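PROTEIN DESIGN WORKSHEET
SECTION A - STRUCTURE
LENGTH: 309
TOKENS:
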């Protein structure tokens, strides 16, 4: 039975023709633009240096994340990835008059690139977590019926390998929790428990809490709903983080934290105290005698003037 939401669900879950080519190409252009906007802004890098940075920025997770399970990377067997990196790098950096970079900087084009890049990341996270779950499923700990931290860690690290590889641990973590870590620590546990936890209480609690929402999407199973939810979250945040909107430093988690814990400054407290002091009655004004005589003018005392002799 089809519904109004079917096209959206198909997009968020990557159920459309040429999904692989479009998402990989979008992420390749995102990586090329990220390098061009930052380290190679003035074109001072050697072309090979800039190209390697483009590949690592866009696909470090695919290059290095398989090492956690001792598997060869899919980047070696997928010609579309490297071909997309070369096409994106050439368009962004080598077209005459910088036409490629200017075209990709046009806001509607940038939004499209961001959306396909975010779709690539969300589908990649779901696929990597499922792969790790299948790998560790037969050996959970004695404290929970399914493996927990292995699949979640695998999904979190997918989006952080680029920053860790290119900047190093100290530089990458110097200013707090990077957004890819924040995103992974929220999306990976949600997807893992919702899609895979059919034996433990956490998955049951999540599915029960969101059952009314999932009921609005007829025919959508738990895994599809989990992928669509993660993908939608990453799509919205990715667009909001564009410079034309809230910027790359925007994080919904930081915004919520600041909203809840916004401190009142000492200056504001001091000013409030002065205002309270000005409007608060004094002890004299609170006395019964004052209340009874309030508004009555006290008689003026006559001054005794001394006559001049």
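SECTION B - SEQUENCE
RESIDUE ASSIGNMENT:
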């Amino acid at each position: 039975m089809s519904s109004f939401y079917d096209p959206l669900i198909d997009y968020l879950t990557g159920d459309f023709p040429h999904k692989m080519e479009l998402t990989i190409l979008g992420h390749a252009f995102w990586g090329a633009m990220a390098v061009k906007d930052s380290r190679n802004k003035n074109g001072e890098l050697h072309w090979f240096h800039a190209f390697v940075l483009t590949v690592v920025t866009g696909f470090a997770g695919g290059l290095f994340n398989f090492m956690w399970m001792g598997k060869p990377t899919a980047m070696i067997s997928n010609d579309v990835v490297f071909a997309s990196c070369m096409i994106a790098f050439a368009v962004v950096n080598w077209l005459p008059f910088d036409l490629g970079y200017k075209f990709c900087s046009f806001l509607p084009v940038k939004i499209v690139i961001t959306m396909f890049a975010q779709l690539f990341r969300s589908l990649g996270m779901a696929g990597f977590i499922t792969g790790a779950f299948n790998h560790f499923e037969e050996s959970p700990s004695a404290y929970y019926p399914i493996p927990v931290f292995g699949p979640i860690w695998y999904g979190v690290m997918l989006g952080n390998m680029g920053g860790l590889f290119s900047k190093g641990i100290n530089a990458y973590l110097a200013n707090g929790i990077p957004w890819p870590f924040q995103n992974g620590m929220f999306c990976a546990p949600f997807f893992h428990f919702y899609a895979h936890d059919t034996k433990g209480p956490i998955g049951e609690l999540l599915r029960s809490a969101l059952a009314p929402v999932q009921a609005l999407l007829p025919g959508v199973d738990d895994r599809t709903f989990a992928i669509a939810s993660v993908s939608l979250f990453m799509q919205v945040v990715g667009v909001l983080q564009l410079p034309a909107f809230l910027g790359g430093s925007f994080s919904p988690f930081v915004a919520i934290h600041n909203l809840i814990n916004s401190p009142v400054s000492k200056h504001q407290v001091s000013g409030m105290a002065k205002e309270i002091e000005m409007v608060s009655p004094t002890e004299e004004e609170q006395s019964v005698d004052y209340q009874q005589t309030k508004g009555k003018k006290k008689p003026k005392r006559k001054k005794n003037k001394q006559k001049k002799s």
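SECTION C - NOTES
The chain has 17 helices and no strands.
Residues 275-296 have pLDDT under 50 and may be disordered.
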